[in-house]
Amino acid sequence: MMEGTAxxxxxxxxxxxxxxxxxxxxxxxxxxLVPFVASSSSSSPSSDPPPDDADAWRSFHRRHSAGKFxxxxxxxxxxxxxxLCSGNxxxxxxxxxxxxxxxxPILRAKESIVVYACDCSEExxxxxKEIVATTSDVSLDHRLHTFLxxxxxxxxxxxxxxxxxxxxxxSKPVNLSSDxxxxxxxxxxxxxxxxxxxxxxxxVDFVTLIFTLSAIPFQxxxxxxxxxxxxxxxxxxxxxxxxxxxDMTMLRFLPEQRMGFxxxxxxxxxxxxxxxxxxVRDLFLGAGFTELELEYCCITSVNRQxxxxxxxxxxxxxxxKPI
Length: 323
Known about the structure:
With 323 residues, the protein is of the alpha/beta class. It has 11 helices and 10 strands. S-adenosyl-L-methionine-dependent methyltransferase.
């Protein structure tokens, strides 16, 4: 169990409004605040994302394939205690799982949790499986099912939550004893861990979006959240944590790295977006979710080598699919 060893979770070392005033009154940072105007110069990034933006993340993970980039997110169980308080047979879908830093504490939390994890990189999925298999004293890998998917472009596979079962979840249980032709076709594409008479796993209890949504182009975010909504069981939760507006990382980007309003591209081609509470609220409520919790997490960390304090801003959110 992770409860006893999880790092203590803090959310308020400073007031976000004070940081906002400091940033907005600093003339050297004003370029972060003005509306974005795409440059006509061919040397500047286009306002439209390249069609292969997922390739940048695949390259990123190849560069960090040694696993040194791995840092287990132990704070998740403090931030999202619902993972510990839920009943038996909990199914979690982790989007953009990376090297497994979110998967590992979730699997350790309870023996009844099964994680379905996807990413656009086959290499990083293999890395996640290896880390989960070797990091813990107890075998966890039998409760982890990974699958390759660029969810910014493609929909989730039917074996997660097929349309007929989604409709039935709002009325009455679907009869799986007599298969329609459509259900039989789904079974042919279903993974081996599904029982023979199942057309899908029947939806998930939690979707985790942990520093994932900010890594995709803003105009694709709404469709990703709608896909998350579609695979959740009614009444279940999406757990969200990501970069907040005026985080230290945002303020380090240069003017030429802007790809849009509050959207930036790193030198390696990967994206980063910085959320305000209003934007997060609009995105999730627009997809049909109900807001349970939404706040800025304002944390002061210290670089001991440089003796420098760093003000980090993250967004914490919990959203529910209505019953």
